[in-house]
Design a protein that fits this description.
- This protein is of the alpha/beta class.
- The protein is about 45% helix and about 10% strand.
- The chain contains 9 helices and 5 strands.
- The protein has a 5-stranded parallel beta sheet.
Amino acid sequence: MHRVIALGDSYTIGEAVAPEQRWVEQWARLMSASGSAIASPVTVIAKTGWTGDELLQGIREHDPLTEFDLATLLIGVNNQYRGQALDDYRQQFAELLAIAGSAVGGRAACVQVLSIPDWGQTPFGRVCGRDLQAVSAEIDAFNTAAESLCRARGVAFLDITGLTRKHHADPAMHAIDGLHPSAAMYGLWAGALHCTGTFGRL
């Protein structure tokens, strides 16, 4: 059984959907069905509203993270939403990448990062009063910073931001709160991650 730890925020914990509908659990089922058995439930350290520094604090409150086969990381939307500096996020993200790598025994190829979704492309975003072009540009900048750090460390980076933009007009892709993804959108993320053949690197 492969042990997976998922680090993040509301997108990882699956705000507004049932636990079994969050992307990491859907992905785990896809992997198990294709012959790579995933221990259930997936270990999750995530909380709605967390920024990178809050995730770091949350990790510190747990026992040392070791003996996992794969670590996933999706963080940063709340840094952007709160208007925090990109340089601060870059520093937090680098530390989180190091922690994720340590959790899988230093195997960078066993760390999987997902990009930050574009929350501006949601029903909530459309009525929030923010400059949505600026929101998208800032999210792109945060994702570019994260991807650059991933490339430098040999960590896989999966762009799911494009999926949130491509399907923004489909009500079925948004949870009842109008902000978070629905189970259907999470299913698209899980399918995209499954197609990367992540466990082929183990």
